[in-house]
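Students often ask why we bother predicting the structure of a whole assembly rather than each chain alone. The short answer is interfaces. A chain on its own may look different once its partners are present, and contacts between molecules only exist in the joint model. In this exercise we take two input lines together and write out one structure for the complete complex. Read the inputs first and try to guess which parts will touch.
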Amino acid sequence: MSQPDGHTDLATLLRAASEGDQEAWNAITDRFTSLLWSVARSYRLGSDDAEDVVQNTWLRLLENLTRIDNPEALPGWLATTARREALGILRRRGRTVLTRDEDLGVDLADPASTELDSALLEDERDVELWASFAKLPERCQQLLRVLMACDRPVYAEVSAAFDMPIGSIGPTRMRCLARLRTLVAESGYQFDGPLDRPREARS
Amino acid sequence: MTDSTRGPSGLDPADLELLERLGAIAAVVDPVPDHLREMSRALFSLRDPDVELMIAVEVDTDRLESVRGTSPTSRMHFFEFGELSVDVELTVSGGFCDVVGVVADPAGSVSGSVTLDTTAASFTTGLDGDGRFELRHIPTGMCRLSLERGSRPKVSTPWFEAG
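Now the answer. The structure tokens for the assembled complex follow.
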């Protein structure tokens, strides 16, 4: 997780990587691969396509390593690039990109997928929370999926990644989170603060 | 909720808690594959710090018509670096593609070699007297072309999709 001085850190890592330091590159990819994966998966890409998104995004960074003027913008640049790669794959596959940005109605969860996910979780509250998350509209799931993969998300970065003007991201995020809390409450479970780390269900 | 409770992320503590919980669940139900982390690290071997990067050029329909590929499964890509240009036609068949290209430099004759890198392998061929080159049976996926011309700076295209 990034520290308050994470940006300074990032500048150092980028400079070192651009000078050929493999360890610095490892640190960058270790920190952000889960963000890129989340962006790809938020578009419901399969594993192979999601891996391509991650790989292609790193290739773009690699060829631009010496051209990143503002290290603070790196997380947003990575998310934007991953999003573009994901949309490119969807286009090549001929799939429609959902654009129900303002639709905060309840989405239909994929029961098979949710059941499969739930089988991995031991804590019933996690099962309920994840099932509720799966009922959120596509746009909310995308936004929250990316936010949950950020260390300390900032408006500008997520805004850049998801084409939302600064100012609309906050309220949208709050509506999505509020909607999620309502869904959890309706399910009969109260999400009330810290829980143990989620554990995989024993088979 | 006041700003002071939101912290630098703009998220209040309850939001952060919920997102962290969801993030922890996502890590269980949809983890990043281990080999993807390793692959991401390994891509560093493809770094080429001494290369000048060409830019991919979007072309208008008229120009595209005049250079339309010879088969419905072929695609054209155009790259430029100053006056230097590389036009490439990729024709895909059964998971592989054939690459036919031409290098043009108004500043002088073109000679040298072209290397096509995929993330797994490299293929090199020479330019003929007209700046043309061909590479056959290249695996589809991401690739880039690099051009070496004697003592002149090496130039490379950005990574692009072959296939």
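Check your guess against this: The CA atoms of residues 118 and 124 of chain A lie 9 Å apart.
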